[in-house]
Amino acid sequence: MEKRLAANVRDNHVSQRGAIDAAQNGRQRSEQKSRAPDKGDYIAEDGEELSRIHKVRVIRNEKREGLMRSRVRGADAATASVLTFLDSHCECNADWLEPLLERVAEDPTRVVCPVIDVISMDTFQYIGASADLRGGFDWSLVFKWEYLSQTERQARQKDPTQAIRTPMIAGGLFVINKAYFEKLGKYDTQMDVWGGENLEISFRVWQCGGSLEIIPCSRVGHVFRKRHPYSFPGGSGNVFARNTRRAAEVWMDDYKQFYYNAVPLARNIPYGNIQDRMELKRKLHCKPFSWYLKNVYPELVIPTSEGGPGGSLKQGTACLDSMGHLLDGNVGLYPCHDTGGNQEWGLTKDGLIKHHDLCLTLPVYAKGTTLLMQICDGSENQKWRHLEGGLIRHSRIPVCVDSRYHAQRGITAEKCDSNAETQRWHLYNNNH
User: Fold this and answer.
1) Closest Cα partner for 291 from 252, 241, 333?
2) For a FRET experiment, which of 2, 22, 73, 255 has its CA 20 to 30 Å from that of 320?
């Protein structure tokens, strides 16, 4: 039986917590009634126990509406000046709300999120997450967590309570001024079920004069599920692509072509009428996506003929591969599969070899050194030059990226040799 609380909208006054409005899919009630009870089994109406809590109102949709329209209905019914959106599968930590309310009270154009801790879906163990993360995405427009730069992490050591500017929010948990939520156009209610709404509201907030922040003094646990416990009419891939296309078409201007290059099948998914969202963009005098890339997310590498997101570094039929390693891990060679993932690399105009938010780094200025993936900070030991003939030479010392010892030590930096096949790398864009 599908069990899903589509949205919790919590009304907040700056000095006290207010009412909870829960908008729920209507078909859950009929499904629950149709289940044959075991002997002695008592089946309560969905939300009946919640409705007994002081100040809680439970609102039920007459039909399945999905996340976006359900949240808008709850927000419309809320009466206080601040809204808190929470997924139902959350556990709020001690004193989580006050730091969020304070930031919104200081500036109503701030949209703020807690640090999202992990609750194991198997054991419900509560696991604290790093506060050195922010939300981002790649050109396939899939949300990801990424480490703050070294400079930002050093600044946070002086004051670990300071707010973290984030290009993107995860979407399930945030606080926003109600009047500002309404002025910004609430949610795109033509999006269906789930997916892409966090992308759309993140672009809209930043481009239309607001800001997004993660507040380290606020922590909320979240159950990260392995699969959706509900169905997507038409399939989850098509629904997500439709929603994402709507966000891209409205907010990304010509940069949307990089999304279509990364996800070619999305071009064939109808996305509906976006005229009202384009009018909202004009009415609010929102900035172009180029402004967002320059001022909010300059770390997002723009694909060029030199390579970029969706590209790979090849040697014959083998490709440079992260081998599933993360921060401070080495890299290796693996048969090319041309689907990105562990083999997705980009060579930037600044000479960085990037794998998402990690860069290929020479940790010691010496030949024979194993190359590592480290946070991209633009330092000299991360800068390379792709030479004619395929060599990738370090910018400071005469060593080149070499695969000869990949089976023993991973990819290393060896004395440059234009005759060595293990030093010849071809940059290949998987989308062309």
Assistant:
1) 252
2) 255
Burial of residue 1 (number of CB atoms within 10 Å: 0-12, 13-18, 19+) = exposed
Rounded to whole angstroms, the Cα distance separating 375 from 168 reads 19
85 backbone dihedrals φ, ψ, rounded to 5°: -95, 130
Question: CA dist 84 to 176, 196, 251, 306, 317, Å?
Answer: 7, 19, 25, 44, 51
Residue 188 near residue 279 (C-beta atoms within 8 A): no
Query: What is the spatial distance between Cα 182 and Cα 186, in angstroms, rounded to a whole number?
Result: 5
Q: How is residue 395 written in tokens?
A: 């910018």
Residue 200's SS3 state is helix
- Contact by Cβ (8 Å): 168, 197: no
Question: What stretch of H or E contains 319?
Answer: strand 318-321
Query: What is the rounded CA–CA span in Å between residue 399 and residue 365?
Result: 9
Token couple for 157: 């050591």
- Phi/psi of residue 224, nearest 5 degrees: -90, 110
- Residue 377: its pLDDT value, please? 83
Q: Order of strands across the sheet with 346-347?
A: 346-347, 353-355, 358-361, 372-375
pLDDT, residue 393, reads 96
Whether the Cβ atoms of residue 335 and residue 317 lie closer than 8 Å to each other: yes
Encoded tokens for 309: 């997101």
Cα separations (Å) of 311 from 77, 352, 370, 432? 47, 14, 22, 10
The CA-atom distances, in angstroms, between 280 and each of 2, 195, 388, 415 are: 35, 21, 49, 57
Domains of the chain as residue ranges with CATH: 7-295 (3.90.550.10), 311-429 (2.80.10.50)
Do 274 and 250 form a contact (C-beta atoms < 8 A)?
yes
Q: How remote is the C-alpha of 221 from its chain's centroid?
A: 17
- Whole-angstrom Cα distance, residue 365 to residue 85? 49
8 A C-beta contact, residue 215 and residue 95? no
**Which tokens belong to 53?**
């809590």
Q: With contact defined as beta carbons under 8 Å apart, do 20 and 55 qualify?
A: yes
Mean pLDDT by runs of 10 across the 432 residues of the chain is: 34 34 37 41 63 87 87 93 92 96 98 95 90 91 88 90 95 95 94 87 97 97 78 72 93 91 84 95 96 93 54 90 89 85 83 87 95 90 91 95 95 95 84 44
Check if the beta carbon of residue 82 is closer than 8 Å to that of residue 14: yes
